[in-house]
Amino acid sequence: MDVVIGLEIHVQLLTRTKLFCSCRADYFAAPPNTLTCPVCLGLPGALPVLNKKAVELALRVALALGAEVQEVSQFDRKNYFYPDLPKGYQITQRAVPLARGGALTFRLAGQERTVRVRELHLEEDAGKLIHTERGTLIDFNRCGVPLVEIVTEPDLRSPQEAREFLRALRTLLRHLRVSTADMEKGELRCDANISVSVDGRPGTKTEIKNLNSFKAVERALQAAAEHQRALLSRGERVEQVTFGWDEGREELLLQRTKEEAHDYRYFPDPDLVPLVVDAMWLAQVQAAMPEPPWEREARWIRAFGLNPSEAEALLVDPVRADYFEEVARAVPNPKAAAGWVLAELGQYWTGDEPPLPAADLVALIRAVEEGRITRPQAKEILEKAVLERTSVPVLLSAAGGVVRDEEALRALAEEVLRENPQAVADYRAGRTQALGFLVGQALRKAQGRADPKRLAHVLQTLLSGG
Amino acid sequence: MAKVEALAGLRLTPEEREQLRADLAKILAYFQKLQEVNTEGVTPFSPLPGQTNALREDEPGPSLPQEEALRNAPESEGGYFRVPPLFSA
Question: Closest-CA residue in chain B for A25?
Fold first, then answer.
């Protein structure tokens, strides 16, 4: 039995205003119904006017995916009766979407996979509903916020693949600066279609709506695939149904059994003139396009010697990627910078912003590379700098230096040898791992302020009678 | 008629239904006339012929105050519009 999955992804665009009116689009913390106007409330006589920036951000996505931008597209009304939509219809692009085709390539367990895009179009978001016992409460702040909808071909072959595709798409959207694409905040939402086919015969599609986390995408698709397999192996038919997903209980919730009342009666919106994207406009959008993550990755691997998994980890968040880039350019060993950004600094990087200015991390890495401080010292300084908000140069000058003096190192080594006769005897008896123990003892005495490699060398020289 | 009612979220009395059925029949008959027009070579739809790209810069403007937005609502609560429960428990 083969699994076939296609996704419909809604992405909120990073515009300042809504798609068809000048109400602010940053509704996240706004009190209910404070970002509305006659247009987004659907009051009689109000007319929509298209936001140019929303078109340009959607075009950026289309170009990055290699989609074919339609020179003339139009807006249609999708009619349905539900209280989250005060006009009684949603403005979307049905007959001619903004762009068609394109593809996204990503990695799954080291393998490259490519998923084709069917189309990409602009539409408006709906209001938010809160269901209470006394009634349904409605906040229209989100109503009219610009969305780009990306519809894939049914090219995905497993729930894990769907999850990884979505991750790769999120990375792309963030790098293009078209969306913050946070699934928890509903900035990136996903509906999925899945069918299980037997012996190559196409199966029946099941739809799962409102998947709001990567885990939900994977788990809900697994559950739907299992459900279909169970039906098929009992010789039963799969019905064309729509499910919701209960994220807490990890259960599919049946929403609609039949194609009941799903007649959207699409027709062209007479309030909106056609959208024409000519070559010149497209060239302007292309010129303003940030570097897509795959180009950045290739460049980092080529120029900085990173491995693909390091590059991928740094690319998840464009702020981190930019930060790494800044540090890597300023230090002698860019590959080492990846480790510092991901591991040492990564443990403190919990918010959106970097926990330490890039220049400070550069100063720290340089001090290590030039042998002025040891790695353990550097980690201590880093911790202080981040937690106590002290600048790295100040901490560096207070740190003292590494014990570099040959005489001092030799005195230290002799002391350690004197105090650890057993280890010395072990080493001379051929158990060379005793050297590691002796180096550790010496480092402890030096409070980390000695280079372990040079210490080992001095110890070895003394042990072999030098 | 039942389907149109369901799509529009309406619940009609038998009298209203008959009245609307008669009205809709008249409207449909009226629009039938359009079928007689020869539309060979005419663009299927164009809201304002020759006009394209009525665009707006992404500059925020004022929104309605909350009280104003809610003023026509039959019911509201805590700044929200309120409608009868969508899901009956």
Answer: B60
pLDDT in tens, A269-317: 999 999 999 999 999 999 999 999 999 999 999 999 999 889 989 998 8
Which chain A residues are within 8 Å of B55, Cβ to Cβ?
A: 49-52, 55
Sign for the CA dihedral angle at A64, A70, A76, A81 comes to negative
A114: Cβ–Cβ under 8 A, 6 or more apart, which residues? A103, A104, A105, A155
Strand locations in A166-318 (E): 188-197, 206-211, 242-246, 251-256, 267-268, 275-276
Degrees to nearest 5, angle at CA B55 with A101 and A292? 40
Residue appearing with tokens 């280890």: A423
Domains of chain A by start residue, with CATH? 2-281 (no CATH), 291-398 (no CATH), 406-463 (1.10.10.410)
Which chain A residue lies closest to B88 (C-alpha atoms)? A133
**pTM (2 d.p.):** 0.81
Phi-psi region of A442 (alpha: psi -120 to 50; beta: other; left: phi over 0): alpha
Measured distance CA(A169)–CA(A204) in Å, rounded: 27
In Å, how far from its chain's centre is CA A388? 29
ipTM: 0.82
